Every structure is written in C-alpha cells, then in structure tokens.
C-alpha cells in the first residue's frame, strides 16, 4: 500500500505566495496525507546518507555539477525508495477530482502519463522499496558514471523521465514477455510486474484526446477527467507590488529566483566550459586535484 | 597467385570487428542485467530494515495528534496494532527531522516570501 505521505521540494522553506496557495490546495484535497517539504539542506541530508544498496552512487553524484533539476531527479527516486508516498512537483495543482480516493488501494505504484506516454516524473506515488525505483536508480547511476559531458549533461536521458520509463519497462518485463510491447500503451488499468507488484498509469482526458494511443477505446479515453494541472493560471496577470503587474509565472520566478532547468544548465554550461570531459575523466581529475591539495 | 583486392581484407576485418563488439555488448548487458536483478532480490527479500517492512500497513484514519504528544505534523494514525502505530510515528518523525520541518517552527522570511511548515 502506498503510504499517505506527500513530498515537495524547493530550495527554501520561504516560498512565493503563489506556491503556498498550491501547497494549501494539496492539503485541502488530500487531508489524510502528511505533507513534507524538503528544502535544499534536506535534499543534501538525504543524498549524503549511506546508500549501500546502490553501489557507485556517491561516486556518480560527483559528476552532478548542477543543483536543481538533476539533483532533484535523483533525490525524488531515493526519497520514494526509502519512505514511499507521493511526490509532486510544487507547481502541480490538484483539480477537484483529485481526492483521497483517486489512487486505488490495490496498487503499489501510480503514475500519470506524460506527453510521450511515459510514466510521469512530475507526479508519482509508490510504495517504499519498489522495483521500479530500484531499476530507475540503478540506471541513473550507470548513466551518471557514463556522462559524456559533465558540464552539459542530457538531463532527460541521464536522470530524467527517460530513465523512469526504463525502470517502468524493466518492472513490467514479465508482462512484456507474454503480452508484448503494447503493454506500455495500456492505461487506467492495473498491471502486474516484478514481485507480483501492481502499477497503474493513468491517462487524463485532455492528453488522451490529443494522443489517442493504440488500444484505447473512446470509453476509456473519457473515463478520466482532468485531475492535475501543471502551472495553473500561470499566465494570469497579477500584482507584484503597488506599481508593477506581471504574470503569475513571472512573479514566482522573481520571488523565488528559481530558473527553469534548461536555462540553468545553459547558464552553467557556459561557465563550466573548461570542464569538457566525461564523468570518468572528471573523477580522475578530481582525484588528482585532491592528491595535489593534500601534498601542499 | 591471385590476391583479392585490399578492400576485401578491410570488409572482412570490419565484419569481424562488428561481430566481436556485438557479442561483447550482448554478454556485458546480459551479465549486468542478471547481476542487478540478483542484487535486487537479495536486497528486497533479506535486507529490508524492520522499520520499512512494517510500514507497509500504513493506516487510513486521519488525526492531528499522536501518542507521544510531540509537535510534529503527523497526520496519520495507522493500523490498530500498537507496534505498527509507533513505527508509523517513527517514520513520520524521522521524515520531519530529515526534511528540516522540526527546526523551522519560527521561521521568518523576507517579504514577499512566506514560510511553509510541514
């Protein structure tokens, strides 16, 4: 059973007013859930723990040069692996239909579906020690240690949704062997994977209407209304101060100082241009640097 | 004596090299997949810490207080068994400490930011 715990993360516990509104909304919609907010220090505390079940983890983490999206990708997998529960990006707004009864009690993992029909990385609910998370984390470590350019990694493929999708596929291997690749395009039904654990990937109505994946009947498509909105009302014009108006999105960025990960990487990639090396090369370089500082 | 053109040797060499690399990759991935699965089974079946094992029966009934009277944000009171109830509280307490919520009760933020408590 998925524990009734919700995890959010942002750099600081001091949050913009618009995000507090979202957090309060979650508390209203899921009153039985305990909400935990993890700031950057909390993220570091979890990452610095002993992860003996994931050999090479701390080595791989040395190749993560950017705090922000990449670190949070890794953190959310570890957090749910250790404690289970629900993870949501802080800018997801639960609609009225999102209530305690939405996630069925008989599943061990529950996802929404992203635009590429992969399980959502921005919202996931799992039991602790779930095989999907194990497979995902193992793949992340493998990817980290094999990054081609540490100064400009391909986030989506190294720690992002692509890797979660890999974990999902690995988990469903028994079913893939019997039912074939179509299994990955089965939505809104309980699937049984490794260790006889169950998973459900939900396709919401708006996306289903756009994508119309194979095997979906129109009845299935209309079964689920819109339950979660990313960046709700972010284009609305709001007051920043007595004299200045801007969109809600601009206000959040201005107040929090958080850049989108693509901008963040672009900015830092320019700064770290001298580090054009693979992760393995970078680790060797670090070793040399440490040795030389010890000598002096 | 007839000697085939040089490109024939190159083609044969390249075919051999590709075959060798494919076999190597296949072996490597098969081995790594088996290893990770073995490790995984070993770990999940034998090495789960008791606190996580018993957490699987997290309960349903919501409440805002806990037995120990601590000021954490625990909202879950779990199953009716006392043992698992305390385990659930342990985990929530652990999470409260880990997330930093424990020490952020009187957090002050620069305007217009607002503090968030667990």
Question: Descriptors for this entry?
Answer:
heterodimer, A: 12 strands, 17% strand, B: 118 residues, mainly alpha, 3 helices, 55% helix
In short:
Chain A is α/β, with parallel strands linked by helices.
Describe the structure.
The complex is a heterodimer of chains A (296) and B (118). With 296 residues, chain A is α/β, with parallel strands linked by helices. Helices cover 43% and strands 17% of the residues of chain A. Chain A has 13 helices and twelve strands. In chain A, strand 11 (237-239) and strand 12 (245-247) form a beta hairpin. In chain A, helix 4 (69-83) runs antiparallel to helix 5. The longest helix of chain A has 17 residues, at 279-295. The model of chain A is unreliable at 218-223 (pLDDT under 50). Chain B is mostly helical and 118 residues long. Helices cover 55% and strands 2% of the residues of chain B. Classes of the chains: A alpha/beta (296), B mainly alpha (118). Chain A binds chain B through residues 1-5, 12-17, 20, 23, 31-39, 41-42, 45-46, 53, 82-84, 127-129, 131, 134-135, 138, 195, 255-256, and chain B through 36, 39-40, 43-44, 47-48, 52, 55-58, 60, 62, 73-76, 91-92, 95-96, 98-101, 104, 107, 109-110, 112-118. Strand 2 (14-15) of chain A pairs antiparallel with strand 1 (114-115) of chain B, so a sheet runs across the interface.
């Amino acid at each position: 059973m998925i524990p009734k715990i919700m995890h959010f993360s942002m750099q600081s516990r001091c949050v913009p007013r618009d995000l507090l509104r979202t957090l309060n909304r979650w508390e209203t919609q899921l009153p039985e859930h305990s909400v935990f907010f993890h700031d950057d220090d909390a993220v570091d505390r979890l990452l610095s723990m002993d992860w003996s079940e994931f050999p090479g983890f701390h080595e791989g983490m040395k190749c993560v040069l950017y705090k922000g999206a990449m670190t949070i990708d890794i953190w959310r997998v570890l957090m749910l692996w250790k404690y289970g529960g629900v993870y949501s990006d802080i800018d997801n707004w639960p609609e009225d239909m999102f209530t305690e009864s939405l996630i069925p009690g008989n599943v061990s993992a529950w996802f929404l579906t992203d635009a590429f029909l992969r399980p959502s990385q921005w919202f996931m609910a799992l039991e602790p020690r779930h095989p999907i998370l194990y497979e995902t984390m193992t793949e992340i470590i493998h990817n980290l240690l094999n990054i081609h350019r540490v100064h400009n990694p391909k986030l989506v493929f190294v720690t992002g949704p692509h890797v979660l999708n890999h974990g999902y596929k690995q988990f469903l291997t028994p079913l893939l062997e019997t039912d074939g690749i179509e299994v990955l395009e089965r939505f809104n039904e309980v699937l049984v994977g490794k260790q006889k654990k169950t998973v459900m990937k939900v396709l919401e109505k708006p996306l289903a209407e756009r994508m119309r994946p194979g095997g979906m009947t129109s009845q299935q498509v209309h079964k689920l209304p819109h339950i979660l909105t990313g960046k709700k009302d972010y284009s609305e014009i709001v007051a920043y101060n007595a004299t200045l108006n801007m969109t809600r999105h601009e206000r959040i960025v201005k107040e929090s100082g958080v850049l989108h990960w693509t901008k963040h990487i672009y900015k830092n990639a320019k700064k770290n241009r001298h580090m054009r090396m693979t992760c393995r090369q970078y680790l060797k370089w670090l070793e040399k640097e440490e040795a030389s500082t010890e000598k002096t | 004596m007839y000697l085939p053109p040089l490109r024939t040797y190159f083609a044969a060499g390249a075919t051999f090299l590709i075959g060798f690399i494919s076999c190597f990759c296949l072996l490597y991935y098969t081995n790594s997949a088996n290893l990770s699965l073995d490790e995984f089974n070993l770990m999940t079946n034998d090495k789960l810490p008791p606190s996580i094992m018993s957490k699987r029966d997290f309960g349903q009934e919501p409440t805002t207080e806990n037995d120990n009277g601590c000021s954490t944000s625990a909202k879950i009171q779990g199953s009716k068994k006392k043992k698992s109830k305390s385990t659930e509280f342990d985990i929530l307490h652990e999470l409260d400490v880990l997330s930093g919520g424990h020490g952020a009760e009187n957090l002050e933020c620069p305007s217009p930011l607002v503090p968030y408590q667990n």
